[in-house]
């Protein structure tokens, strides 16, 4: 089988002579360094992506993908908004809501601020998993006029209440009286307790019937807005804009839109930045392997001075000499990258079992359930990230071969063979 001369010689040089096995050892160290860097980078980014996905999914279980609300006033024509939204094939569910920040006070007279949301139980099932997260009671207990309330588990503990107790809900809406302005307040009966697994929800949210909240806030039939659940959450902003535009064409008021990315921008930007920084730092491991590759190639060029001079006298051009060592160095990078990708896939998919083995052997708990809501080890192997990591490793390996190959191409045959 025909092979170009630089490729054939480069493959031959992949293993140094027996008398100079140290160079082979450095080449092996370069392969291991690149492979280890790729493995660690794939595993770390996959686990970080898994935690990011887990946090996002838990948050979006109770947060709408998109929201359409009236600008600075209650939304009066919300039935039209729900009807138009459900006509859009991209929308999986739509539900009205009334939000109000409030101070909740339990039986122990210990107050806690929370977001109290008025909902329609039948429609709420289309946009959240509240009905599936009930530890006690049922979402169906939120009947109009009953003034029942559902509390997050952390909020209930903080207030010192359980199912059947009452809590006082004081909203931020004020009433003017001869004694001055006082907040509108109402006592609600605790009809259920839920646990979502996300602290901001479990300690900072409560749910009541929408009509009860409308009566408390004296906003008539108006609502704060309409929440949308989509089949593809990445289309949230565009779907909300389309719905607001259709409502505006019907002659209604201007509407404000928001989506899950904007409502939780700080969280997702910090997670994204943390992942990016971690990726850059761990890429230095691959760079260390590339530096080892530079040293091994320089030593190989020094060891092969006589061979290079002979090849030059036989007619091999400086460009051909450079290609010989570029092929040899690049092949080391390819082997290390392939080994790293395979190692990363194997390590990532078995990392949870490895952690379980460590916990069993050393009698420790790495992810205690009383501290972390996520007791497993989620991961998300993104093919695009794996390809990008492989390309980065191959690029570093290729760049690492340029200087040694250029140095080999500048070898003077007469000088190299003077003492041979």
Automatic annotation (TrEMBL):
Occurrences of domain MacB-like periplasmic core (ranges): 27-244
Main location group: membrane
Subcellular location per the Swiss-Prot or TrEMBL entry: Cell membrane
ABC3 transporter permease C-terminal domain location: 280-413
Keywords: Cell membrane, Lipoprotein, Membrane, Transmembrane, Transmembrane helix, Transport
GO CC entries: plasma membrane protein complex
Membrane topology term: Multi-pass membrane protein
InterPro entries, per database record: ABC3_permease_C, Lipoprotein-release_system, LolCE_TM, MacB_PCD
Statement: the UniProt record of this protein carries the keyword Zinc: no
A Gene Ontology biological process term: lipoprotein localization to outer membrane
Family of the protein in this entry: Belongs to the ABC-4 integral membrane protein family. LolC/E subfamily.
Full protein name: ABC transporter-type lipoprotein-releasing ABC transporter
Organism: Pseudoxanthomonas spadix (strain BD-a59)
Lineage per the UniProt record: Bacteria, Pseudomonadati, Pseudomonadota, Gammaproteobacteria, Lysobacterales
